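Issue 218. Parser rejects a valid record. Input:
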Amino acid sequence: MKNFINILLVLAIAACTFRTEEQNFVNPIFYKDMVPLSTGTWYMHIMPTKLVSSYKGDTNIQKCTLTENTMAAVTLRCEGPNPDNRGYILIYRFVLRPENKDYGGMLVEMFFNAPDEPEEFTSQISYIIPE
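Output the parser choked on:
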């Protein structure tokens, strides 16, 4: 009986030790849907562990890791959107940009690139998080 209790105690401690910590954005505004400023650009929704983009009925879901998490910016390291090439990695950085213009919400700049590209971020898209 004593061995049984010891085994249960060890299992309980191990379960607490290996429990994955849920990640949350520091700034909850990043949980909201992002609407592109330009036509032909995909809509965006991010979470700490995935990125969902959609356009005209097509949807891409990318598995991600949160690498930066501040009030002003979030950076995600994500698998490529193509299911045949999940090993291709993309870095996405979302930065809040306070503007005097009335966009009907908060302006967000999304910068992205592959880690093997020579510049830190090679592309940029503007989004609005509606109020």
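Fixed in the parser; the record now loads. The chain is about 10% helix and 45% strand.
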